[in-house]
Amino acid sequence: MMNKKKIQFSVLLGIIAVLAIIAFQYLWFREAFNQEKRKFNQSVHIALLEVVKLLANENNSQLPQTNPVEKISDDYFLVRINEEINAEILEFYLKNEFEKLNIQSDFEYAIYDCSNDEMVYGNYVNYDQKGISRSNEAFFPKIDNLVYYFAVRFPNQPVFFSKPTGTWTIISILSLVVLAIYIYSIFVILRQNRYAELQTDFINNMTHEFKTPISSIMLASQFLSGNSVITKDERLKKYSEAINHQSQRLNQHVERILSIAKSEKNSLKPEIKPVVLIECIQKILDQFRSKCEAKISFQFDCQDHNKTVSMDENHFVNVMNNLLDNACKYSRGTPDILVWVNCEHNQIKIGVKDHGMGIPKMHQSKVFDKFYRIPRENSDPITGFGLGLHYVKQVCQQHKWDISLSSEIKKGTEVVITIHQT
Ligand code: ATP
Ligand code: MG
């Protein structure tokens, strides 16, 4: 299960990535737009120069000395000439030259009439022969101190907005797709996380609900086994013992699941107290020997036999029992288990080593996950919830201990807990 921090982190990372993509996209678009605009301006400039030349040729007049084309704004150009202009001829030349330079835009033009001192509207020329015939806000500002000139306006500017070139379109569609995928996966993750929370809650509630009836059964069966009528009858005694035994087992399972759920929510605050380590482990081993028929040896390499470690003793006992339980469960024949303790000046290592069936490499990193169990192809499946090692890891994290696992198939497994002492 993903925890909240991980999700928050990946969402944050994703948002940064998406913002970066959008910023990049924006810069890219702006660059593309500017480039298109420059290209357009250049083409118009060249075309207008050409028109000036043609007009001069027509009238056998001189070319203007200075650059006759003046860009007033992105969509408005003024062109100086040396003589009067015929509107039809001008339009013909403009159309021709614009076509030659592939300027695919509507335009309109006006010619300055010096006798009236006003701009005379020429025509609206449709690039694709359809649409409006005259733009309604045609405005052709005059320029003082010029005699002959005409003006060209591109009312549909900027054309590049309506017709982005192929590459830009593909790139922006791609990044939109990436964005959509990202948003979708966030939704999926959040939903999944909610399911995981629901699952934890459900297990919590369920085990709570189970506890009361189980305690009643346990109480009743204890009463039954103590009853003289029942102890006299061999068969009844066997039945009541079975009830007693099984209800205790059930209770243990429920307790274990509950404690995991609690440790996950960190609601079970560890009660840290100094514990004499060697003595504590010896006690655990003595108790465990009666539960499992195994050869369990204990080695310790500590100068100070009464060395204390600050920890929650209950949790530690559960951790050791879980590790021993696994070592026992996943061995064939009589389990051969070695528990060792190694004290160095600022760290203590505790190891539980067995000579059992081992864990395949591909599963080793996952066995600490909640509910993770390795599918065994054995005819007699070994039962369990896949919670033991998860609990062990939780406790180690709470105490800031390191835990490592090494294993080889058919040779055995070793789990080592490292306690740092400051
Ligand atoms: P539970 O402990 O909740 O009863 P479990 O033992 O299956 O169930 P874990 O203790 O978390 O769950 O172990 C997870 C898996 O790791 C187990 O299914 C088992 O296959 C594998 N495993 C754990 N310890 C050993 C070991 N000492 N040797 C071989 N396999 C192991
Ligand atoms: Mg286990």
Task: Give a written overview of the molecule.
The chain is α+β, with helices and mostly antiparallel strands. It has three domains: 4-162, no CATH class; 166-264, Orthogonal Bundle (Helix Hairpins); 273-420, Histidine kinase-like ATPase, C-terminal domain (Heat Shock Protein 90), CATH 3.30.565. It contains ten helices and twelve strands. Strands 1-2-5-3-4 form a five-stranded antiparallel β-sheet. A hairpin with a 2-residue loop joins strand 1 (69-73) and strand 2. Helix 1 (4-59) runs antiparallel to helix 4. The longest helix has 61 residues, at 166-226. It starts with a helix and ends with a strand. The relative contact order is 0.07. The structure holds adenosine-5'-triphosphate and magnesium ion. Magnesium ion (MG) is lined by residues 322, 325-326, 384, 388. The site of magnesium ion has 5 residues, from helix 8.
Q: Could you state the oligomeric state of the chains shown?
A: single chain
The SSE order reads HEEHEEEHHHHEHEEHEEHHEE
Helicity, as a percent range:
40-55%
Radius of gyration: 43 Å
- Computed structural class: alpha+beta
Q: How would you characterize the largest beta sheet? A: 5 strands, antiparallel
Question: Which spans have pLDDT < 50 for at least 5 consecutive residues?
Answer: none
Number of domains: 3
| Shape estimate | rod-shaped
Q: What's the tally of helices? A: 10
* Neighbour order of strands in the largest sheet: 1-2-5-3-4
- The fraction of residues assigned to DSSP E strands is 15-25%
Q: Could you give the distance between the termini?
A: 33 Å
User: What is the residue-averaged pLDDT?
Assistant: 85
| Number of beta-strand segments | 12
Q: Which small-molecule ligands are present, each listed once?
A: adenosine-5'-triphosphate, magnesium ion
